[in-house]
Amino acid sequence: MHIVYPVVVSALLFSIGVYGVLARRNAILVLMSVELMLNAVNLNLVAFDVWLRDRLHGGQVLTLFVIVIAAAEIGLGLAIVLAVYRNRQSIDVDRLRDLSETGASEEAGPPEEPVGVGEDADREARP
Amino acid sequence: MNGTIQAPTLEYAQLAPMLVVFGAAIVGVLVEAFAPRYLRSAIHVPITLLSLAGAFALTIWQVVKGVPTKPAAMGAVAVDGPSLFIWGTILVLAFVSVLLINDEDHFVAAAAAVPGSAEEEQALHEGAGHTEVYPLALFAVGGMLLFPASNDLLVMFVALEVMSLPLYLLCGLARRRRLLSQEAAVKYFLLGAFSSAFFLYGTALLYGYAGSIDLAKISAALGVVGGQETLLYIGVAMLGVGLLFKIGAAPFQAWKPDVYQGAPTPITALMASGTLVAAFGALLRVFWVALGGLDWNWSPVLWAVAILTMVVGAILAITQTDIKRMLAYSSIAHGGFLLVGVVATGAAAGQNSKALSAILFYLVAYGFTTVGAFAVVTMVRDAGGEAWHLSRWAGLGKRSPLLAGIFAFFLLAFAGIPLTSGFFGKYAVFQAAVAGGATPLVIVGVVASAVAAFFYVRVIVLMFFSDPAADGPSVVLPSRGTAAVVGVAVLATVFLGVFPQPVLHLAQNAAQSLFIR
């Protein structure tokens, strides 16, 4: 098989992943799109490995590393998304705007944040 | 295949600083699993601080013994002069940041609990805390050590992830303003994962071009392999995107203010100092060791990125009303000044070592000042936590002259006023850039510095020449840790500003051997 076919397929997969990250609003779907990008890389690496007849199989080894690290990354990402969902009941990335540029400059005073339990004034701000 | 497998050789002595840090991090995880809750903090803090100090001592020992001239671990990790200098810098900055992390209860008691819920109340009542922050910080520091020293793209990717993954988590663990903190974690994570996918795609394309992921072999393939320039150019561009993202250079700077603002301030200090140093080390190594023969192609792009970064950082900082966001934009602008130094690494070895030593000195100077500035931010408190809004800082000079004076000193160092460390850092980088023929860049840099000086001075004016609000923030009495951090940062900033010679000399010696090719 000619090397061009797998390379083009992986480029397309990568582009779909990029589109997904930029266009999706659901954090889980963004995570899935990132996975798609990483898998495009894996396909690319394996194809190059076979094409180059690499004696040390650097491409395949790198693929294994990518798979492991991608798994760790997804586990961590889901934990963060879960924490956000518990507090906001929403994982819409477009609604995460508390830290955005406009929000900061429009506010006249310091941002009003819900203060957690046990953070009473006399404990936190000692005179 | 003749049936025998040769075991790889590992130079344990050269890798010792990293091994100590990673080992201590693993011990920390075990402590988390087996030690009772009330003991954990008491065990973690000495382990973390001792391992960082020990790793620093091992780094010094390595320098005294003689800088190795060959890459270690079968060519995967290069422990050379610049690496050792960067390791020393990162370890000291991490030590200082850990003092800040340890200091007060910056971190959430139970990350999984909703603020205000019964679980949270119970966790606070029991005095629970996420002591996992210490092993997480150690893993991040280990990744920072490996990142600039990695000599092939596989190790570099692993180091990038080992450095970033703990930081994503640490960003979301602030005790106060939980929503902002978690939002920062989501943003940092999504953008970080996005950029590391770009880094990997670039790696794959370069592998396809050169047939190897070893930096030296990629460099060797540059002149030999023909007819596949598309792979090479797209690969270099993608790799560059991944690395420039970590630095926060201009088209990829969007995460920096959001994450710096939302993350717990000690973690912001660790990121702003350690990650920046590590990422510049890695960027220099990739562009000098692997792609040095291609500088006609990447140098114009870096020119544009450096100009854009300086301009965006300096101009957007003026509009900020939040102290942490302002420091984040200042960090972006400083990244631009450092990129001027990266552009100045020309073809000749002499010019290279000059630019490299300037960058190394700048990194030390900036790292200490930024840790000190964030340490000051942790001490100015409102009822709901740290007072971030600039209007709250009005009149601080009348309420607490010492603290305001120290903060003003740090801001002047950021601006690059003579007799502070920032002046010599900027001077060295710009001088190297002029020698390297990048005079237009230096002019842009000087103008950007002047613009940046405007907003630093604005904060100083606000602190000293306006009346304090009646219900203004209070300055907490610093604990020993925070006081030590601020003291060290002030001393370093003064010392590097008045007697820069010893550190400049050290940086020159480190840069003399250049990166191992």
UniProtKB/TrEMBL annotation, chain A:
<dbReference type="InterPro" id="IPR039428">
    <property type="entry name" value="NUOK/Mnh_C1-like"/>
</dbReference>
<feature type="region of interest" description="Disordered">
    <location>
        <begin position="101"/>
        <end position="127"/>
    </location>
</feature>
<dbReference type="GO" id="GO:0050136">
    <property type="term" value="F:NADH dehydrogenase (quinone) (non-electrogenic) activity"/>
</dbReference>
<feature type="transmembrane region" description="Helical">
    <location>
        <begin position="6"/>
        <end position="22"/>
    </location>
</feature>
<dbReference type="GO" id="GO:0030964">
    <property type="term" value="C:NADH dehydrogenase complex"/>
</dbReference>
<feature type="transmembrane region" description="Helical">
    <location>
        <begin position="64"/>
        <end position="85"/>
    </location>
</feature>
<comment type="subunit">
    <text>NDH-1 is composed of 14 different subunits. Subunits NuoA, H, J, K, L, M, N constitute the membrane sector of the complex.</text>
</comment>
<keyword id="KW-0874">Quinone</keyword>
<dbReference type="GO" id="GO:0048038">
    <property type="term" value="F:quinone binding"/>
</dbReference>
<feature type="compositionally biased region" description="Low complexity">
    <location>
        <begin position="101"/>
        <end position="118"/>
    </location>
</feature>
<keyword id="KW-1003">Cell membrane</keyword>
<keyword id="KW-0812">Transmembrane</keyword>
<keyword id="KW-0472">Membrane</keyword>
<dbReference type="InterPro" id="IPR001133">
    <property type="entry name" value="NADH_UbQ_OxRdtase_chain4L/K"/>
</dbReference>
<keyword id="KW-0520">NAD</keyword>
<dbReference type="GO" id="GO:0005886">
    <property type="term" value="C:plasma membrane"/>
</dbReference>
<keyword id="KW-1133">Transmembrane helix</keyword>
<keyword id="KW-0813">Transport</keyword>
<comment type="function">
    <text>NDH-1 shuttles electrons from NADH, via FMN and iron-sulfur (Fe-S) centers, to quinones in the respiratory chain. The immediate electron acceptor for the enzyme in this species is believed to be a menaquinone. Couples the redox reaction to proton translocation (for every two electrons transferred, four hydrogen ions are translocated across the cytoplasmic membrane), and thus conserves the redox energy in a proton gradient.</text>
</comment>
<keyword id="KW-1278">Translocase</keyword>
<dbReference type="Pfam" id="PF00420">
    <property type="entry name" value="Oxidored_q2"/>
</dbReference>
<feature type="transmembrane region" description="Helical">
    <location>
        <begin position="29"/>
        <end position="52"/>
    </location>
</feature>
Automatic annotation (TrEMBL), chain B:
<dbReference type="InterPro" id="IPR001750">
    <property type="entry name" value="ND/Mrp_TM"/>
</dbReference>
<feature type="transmembrane region" description="Helical">
    <location>
        <begin position="155"/>
        <end position="174"/>
    </location>
</feature>
<keyword id="KW-0812">Transmembrane</keyword>
<feature type="transmembrane region" description="Helical">
    <location>
        <begin position="267"/>
        <end position="288"/>
    </location>
</feature>
<feature type="transmembrane region" description="Helical">
    <location>
        <begin position="326"/>
        <end position="349"/>
    </location>
</feature>
<dbReference type="GO" id="GO:0008137">
    <property type="term" value="F:NADH dehydrogenase (ubiquinone) activity"/>
</dbReference>
<keyword id="KW-0813">Transport</keyword>
<dbReference type="GO" id="GO:0048038">
    <property type="term" value="F:quinone binding"/>
</dbReference>
<dbReference type="Pfam" id="PF00361">
    <property type="entry name" value="Proton_antipo_M"/>
</dbReference>
<feature type="transmembrane region" description="Helical">
    <location>
        <begin position="186"/>
        <end position="210"/>
    </location>
</feature>
<keyword id="KW-1278">Translocase</keyword>
<feature type="transmembrane region" description="Helical">
    <location>
        <begin position="12"/>
        <end position="31"/>
    </location>
</feature>
<keyword id="KW-0520">NAD</keyword>
<comment type="similarity">
    <text>Belongs to the complex I subunit 2 family.</text>
</comment>
<keyword id="KW-0472">Membrane</keyword>
<dbReference type="GO" id="GO:0005886">
    <property type="term" value="C:plasma membrane"/>
</dbReference>
<feature type="transmembrane region" description="Helical">
    <location>
        <begin position="477"/>
        <end position="499"/>
    </location>
</feature>
<keyword id="KW-1003">Cell membrane</keyword>
<comment type="function">
    <text>NDH-1 shuttles electrons from NADH, via FMN and iron-sulfur (Fe-S) centers, to quinones in the respiratory chain. The immediate electron acceptor for the enzyme in this species is believed to be a menaquinone. Couples the redox reaction to proton translocation (for every two electrons transferred, four hydrogen ions are translocated across the cytoplasmic membrane), and thus conserves the redox energy in a proton gradient.</text>
</comment>
<feature type="transmembrane region" description="Helical">
    <location>
        <begin position="84"/>
        <end position="101"/>
    </location>
</feature>
<keyword id="KW-0874">Quinone</keyword>
<protein>
    <recommendedName>
        <fullName>NADH-quinone oxidoreductase subunit N</fullName>
        <ecNumber>7.1.1.-</ecNumber>
    </recommendedName>
</protein>
